[in-house]
Amino acid sequence: MRVLGIDPGLTRCGWGVVDGRPGARPAAVGVGVIRSSADLDLELRLLELHTQVTALLREHRPDVVAIERVFTQNNKGTATGTAQAAGVAALAAAQADRPVAWHTPSEVKAAISGNGRADKEQVTLMVTRVLGLTSAPKPADAADALALAVCHVWRGPAQDRLRVAAIAGGIGAPVVQRTLPRWRGVSR
């Protein structure tokens, strides 16, 4: 399974691509950060992010896109920008007909380090070790994106099976096929 992890942000949006399967050591395929200038109007920053995520989807052709679920932050402006960036990444994935998996920060930290309250340095250290990298990915946004991808490789298939079992048992809403037309600007 190939996973594109997205650590959303307007100024710095981390991305990381990982190949792997549950129970095996995953391999890093690519990592980086999409940057946008705070001097640009918001709509142009979001457009730049969309364009770059779309390019990553075309280049790496992931099976799924794992995005960090935004809860709350102390700075409401930062939380809003992060949520907007997450939405744009999810939109690009939907346009490319790629499923999106949402993971909480504590879920990702627990998956990669065993501690749901791990700090950024610990996450970066464990990402480096788990993926067998020769140097730590920088900045932390890039390491967080790789951690998201690893988290989904390890936990995503089990979560999917539990979701299907719950639906089969009458718990939750049935899965409805997408009926929205696809934007023709993004191809598989």
Automatic annotation (TrEMBL):
- What residues bind Mg(2+) 1, as annotated? 7, 141
Which of this chain's residues are annotated to bind Mg(2+) 2? 68
What residues make up the catalytic site? 7, 68, 141
Q: Which residues form a coiled coil?
A: none
The answer, when asked if Aminoacyl-tRNA synthetase is one of the entry's keywords, is no
Identify the Pfam families for this entry.
RuvC
Q: Which cofactor does it need?
A: Mg(2+)
Supply the EC number(s): 3.1.21.10
Which terms are listed as keywords in the entry?
A: Cytoplasm, DNA damage, DNA recombination, DNA repair, DNA-binding, Endonuclease, Hydrolase, Magnesium, Metal-binding, Nuclease
Identify the enzyme class: hydrolase
* Cell location: Cytoplasm
Keyword Lyase found:
no
* Taxonomy, superkingdom: Bacteria
Cofactor binding note: Binds 2 Mg(2+) ion per subunit.
Catalytic activity field: Endonucleolytic cleavage at a junction such as a reciprocal single-stranded crossover between two homologous DNA duplexes (Holliday junction)
InterPro entries for this protein = RNaseH-like_sf (IPR012337), RNaseH_sf (IPR036397), X-over_junc_endoDNase_Mg_BS (IPR020563), X-over_junc_endoDNase_RuvC (IPR002176)
Please state the protein's primary subcellular location: cytoplasm
Partners and quaternary state? Answer: Homodimer which binds Holliday junction (HJ) DNA. The HJ becomes 2-fold symmetrical on binding to RuvC with unstacked arms; it has a different conformation from HJ DNA in complex with RuvA. In the full resolvosome a probable DNA-RuvA(4)-RuvB(12)-RuvC(2) complex forms which resolves the HJ.
Family affiliation: Belongs to the RuvC family.
Provide the function of this protein.
The RuvA-RuvB-RuvC complex processes Holliday junction (HJ) DNA during genetic recombination and DNA repair. Endonuclease that resolves HJ intermediates. Cleaves cruciform DNA by making single-stranded nicks across the HJ at symmetrical positions within the homologous arms, yielding a 5'-phosphate and a 3'-hydroxyl group; requires a central core of homology in the junction. The consensus cleavage sequence is 5'-(A/T)TT(C/G)-3'. Cleavage occurs on the 3'-side of the TT dinucleotide at the point of strand exchange.
Protein name from the UniProt record: Crossover junction endodeoxyribonuclease RuvC
Q: Name the species this protein comes from.
A: Geodermatophilus arenarius
Q: Which gene encodes it?
A: ruvC
